[in-house]
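Assess the record.
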Amino acid sequence: MTDLAAQFLADAGAAPAAASSAPAAAPTGLAAQFIADASATPAPAAPAPSAAPSAASQVGRQVGLTARAGVTGIMALPSMVGDALNAGVNFGIRGINDLAGTQIPQLAPVSQSVQNIETDAGLPVPKNATERVVQDAASAMAGVSPSVGIGKLLLGAASPVAQAVGAGMQAVPGAQIAGAAGAGAGSGTARELGLGPGYQIGAALLGGAAGVGAGSLASAGVRAAANRMMPAPSIPPAAAASRADSAVERMLNDLGPQARQAYAPMQQPEPVPVGPALGAPAPSDGVQAAAPGAPNVPAPTQPAAAQPMPTASSQFGTFQPLQQRIAQAIQENPQVDPAAVMRAQDFQTLGMQPTLGQITRDPIQYAQEMNIRGAPTGAPIANRFNQQNAQLQQALMGLTGTPADAYQAGGAIKGALQSIDNQMGQQVSDAYAAARASSGKNLDVPLQGVAQDYAQVLNDFGDKVPSGVRNNFNQLGLMGGTQQKTFSIENAENLLKVINANQSNDPATNTALGQLRNSVKNAILSADDQGGVFAPARALAAQRFALQDQIPALQAASADTVAPDDFVKRFVVGGKTDDVSAMAQLLQQHAPDAFQEMRSQIGAQLAAKGFGANPAGDARFNPSPYMQQMQAFGPTKLAAFYTPDELAQLNAIGRVGAYMNAFPSAAPVNTSNTASAIASLVGAGVKKIPYVGGLVDNAQNRMFVNRALAARLSDTAVQQPGGAPAQSALGSLLLNSAQRTPSGNP
């Protein structure tokens, strides 16, 4: 027996013949394995591989998954509200069960019920990670539609906060869809990788920002390609000029008659000498004296006769710079908004940079710029607003100078007028003195008219006529019917000084003295030597009295009837246009410092209406009171103090201030800054997410801010309010950060 056979027999428990009677041992080793394999039950055959699904079934499944995503997305908002309500109810149910030992069943989440209904309706269920992530992205995209619809409804709400939320929800739906898809895919991917809720939120934020950015880049690329492939047709210069002319005319018609004066103020008249030249010699002999009531005096410039309102066609030169700027913009971009060009030109006139909402006056764009200024990403817009207000104040203050207070200004202007009147009076006296020396006789002033007027004043006013004035008149013998002394020009001048010295605060007394003053003046003018040596002196006196009649402030200063405190208010700010214009010309010729003070007082009134008291120096410009004061002054009165370019600047200040601070009628501006506060809180929370906050940080808001600050005229062609995609992507994130098929109640 060979060694292998012996080993086999030994393993099988076989023994030599001598030992056959002994009991057999159990098989071991190779024999045991052999016996076990031989006695084992045969393994079942492997099933044959199933056939691959057909293309038709795959298409049907994808259609079903798409329908499931659409229903899930549309029901996302209601489901979220329902889940919150059911969670509150379930909290109460659990409390009752714990206290009473009952077994009241809890409500299932609404989102779970929606999923169950979709499954019962035969819609396929995602089977793998890829299908689940795609389902999340598609559901988020479908959820944009109801949010846009709700946003449109909120735009009609009365609450500014609701309007602001609605504006954000309904704007730029394409970017919202892109952001929602990215947010859904990001959060779903993180969930499939087994990451926790915090990482899912971060992934959703990253995905939403990436989706919005990709959508924006794609849109920009499509627009750029379209512009290259189909460039805008060029417009001939003549056609652009015609369109610009029509646009200017239409804009001015829309803004009303005041706009024509604001955009094209009347030209400043050439200075005309007012009154006799101070220091000049008296008119030579032979100058014809002016008849009483019609003095031979150069009158202040009178406003031109009313003419038809100019149009951009009939007086093209007036609007030519504005028309040229609009025509140039139309040639560069045929779809540009001419009104935006006009507003941008106003900013350029003042050396200021606008925002897009300010030049377009688009309600949504304007409101979003105002609302975002309180958020961290809106800080550049807030800085722009502050800079604009400071520049507006500097522009206005540059035209006002340094005005004195009312008392000092009134005293300076009144003193200058008194000095002018005294010089004219001295010229008259010198002329009469020269005539007397030449003729050797006096020119008597007839008193018949004075006597009649004095009697009438005493009858009408009685003891209201001061005793000092009555004494001087009585010394002339006027009441006795017999003149007791001659009455020369010097006597008349002295009597006028007595009348002026007795002015009081009693209106009746001042009225009586005014009538007596006019009577004495008329008597002086009626003293005539029939063209003799006194004619030049009489002509100078006529000029002086006529000028006092034409400029009430000159008469008041001469008679000292108005206190300095009230002088500016009565004769400058509140004076009649012709009176103020005549006084301004007189002072500009003979007292330039007083003229500058008048100009400063006019400017100070405008500044007070625009900025108020402004003790801190940074008050917000208020365009409505400012423009009301501009209209109250009127272009003719303002033209007495400002050049046409300065008038254009004053009007531009009012318009730019309105572009900045006057809300468009439909703009949902949140004046309480609630939206800004919420945005700030959200931004702060996002920044705290590890590795995410620094990348997200409201990327779309930054894009909106940059576009608003650029204020490109090309962006006025098709107004596309921005800012909503970031908020909508965040909303999609909140919808997609939760599981689509919750496993239980909260």
